[in-house]
Design goal:
This protein is α/β, with parallel strands linked by helices. It is built from 6 helices and 9 strands. α2 packs parallel to α4. It comes from Paramixta manurensis. It is found in: Cytoplasm.
Length: about 220
């Protein structure tokens, strides 16, 4: 049976919940396109997050890997295009680590591009009435750390398994504590993630659509 690994993070930065895990955990053991979805929570800790991720990949031998993370302040489902080889933490992680200008993989490439059909995913999510866009930066915190580490790992294994990263907004219960900050309901995020997985499993060649940014 095909397996899709989907990961999310524990709460960080003073939040009591992480919307990525609140959504992703509800996808655990669901079937989509003949594939079983397996959800795993990653620690919001540099290094340890990748150790947990690689262990899950080795155990499950998935067809597809989708990592999901919180992006407080964003209003859309953000399908990430690229991860860069640098840790530059604005705040400490959950174990107090705060790397500055450090490579994720020593002597690794400067960047890796998502191997998911990112524009097809964005188009499909938008067609369902959910705001979505291609994002040109996954930041330089643990989310980018995981995306780069994931893509580097899959590349080292031959590149047959596809992977990528999606950022999601705060939940409404979080946004209440951050006046003026956008949010998205968990059920809306779950639908978007289901669509992302379905499209990724069914689409070999990405769509050629505008998805860039002017700044």
């Amino acid at each position: 049976m095909k397996t899709v690994l989907i990961t999310a993070f524990e709460p960080f930065g003073g939040e009591s919940v992480n919307p990525s895990w609140e959504a992703v955990r509800q996808l655990n053991e669901r079937m989509l396109c003949g594939a079983k979805i397996v959800a795993r929570q990653l620690p919001c800790v540099f290094g340890h997050a990748l150790t947990s991720l690689y262990k899950a990949i080795d155990e499950l031998q998935p067809e597809l890997v989708l990592a999901v993370g919180q992006a407080g302040g964003r209003a859309e489902i953000s399908v990430e295009r690229v991860a860069i080889n640098v840790d530059d933490a604005r705040i400490p992680d959950n174990q107090g680590n705060q790397p500055i200008d450090e490579p994720i993989v020593s002597e690794g490439p400067a960047a890796f591009f998502s191997t998911l059909p990112i524009k097809a995913i964005v188009e499909g999510i938008r067609e369902a009435g959910i705001p979505a866009s291609v994002s040109q930066t996954a930041g330089t915190y643990v989310c980018n750390h995981v995306m780069y580490g994931l893509l580097h790992h899959l590349h080292q294994q031959g590149g047959e398994v596809r992977g990528g990263f999606i950022h999601i907004p705060y939940l409404p219960e979080q946004a209440v504590k951050h006046p003026g900050t956008p949010s998205m309901a968990a059920q809306t995020v779950i639908l978007a993630l289901e669509m992302a997985i379905t499209i990724a499993l069914r689409t070999e060649q990405d769509l050629r659509l505008e998805g860039g940014a002017t700044h």
